[in-house]
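Example for tutorial group B:
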């Protein structure tokens, strides 16, 4: 536009056009901010010594150690490890909430950060060898209990 056209345009229209451009630019920036926002990726890795134990988290089989699984909520999880020749181990494992996931900061870390945050939790458990009781000892214990019940003790 030439200067003569601008001088003929009412001031009201010039200000409205500039405001509209600003509002469109602001709306575009807000839209980009929300579409490019990051999130928190939560993942826990479970290991056992020795490796190769079947892992159940809250009753769901997730695989053999070492194994990783994504999760949504921080909580106390029931982790069960099973391996032939070893005692089955069940643990109530607390998965701690990091400071940036505490209300109200979690709204910022989950929705407004321009990058992804990865929150990893590693848990390692030592499995105990299964104690095998000799058959003779087991039979002796059974006979002792039977005798005690017959005597009335």
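The residue assignment follows.
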């Amino acid at each position: 536009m030439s200067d003569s056209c601008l001088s003929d345009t009412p001031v009201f229209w010039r200000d409205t056009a500039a405001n509209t451009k600003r509002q469109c630019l602001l709306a575009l920036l807000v839209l980009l901010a929300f579409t490019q926002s990051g999130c928190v990726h939560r993942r826990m890795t479970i290991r056992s010594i020795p490796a190769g134990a079947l892992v159940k988290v809250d009753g769901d089989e997730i695989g053999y150690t070492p194994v990783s699984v994504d999760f949504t909520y921080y909580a106390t999880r029931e982790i069960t490890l099973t391996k032939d020749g070893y005692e089955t181990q069940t643990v109530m494992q607390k998965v701690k909430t990091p400071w940036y996931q505490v209300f109200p900061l979690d709204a910022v870390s989950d929705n407004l950060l321009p990058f992804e945050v990865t929150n990893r939790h590693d848990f390692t458990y030592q499995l105990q060898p299964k104690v095998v009781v000799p058959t003779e000892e087991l039979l002796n214990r059974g006979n002792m209990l039977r005798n005690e019940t017959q005597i009335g003790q």
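The chain has a mean pLDDT of 83. Compare this with the pattern of hydrophobic and polar residues in the output above.
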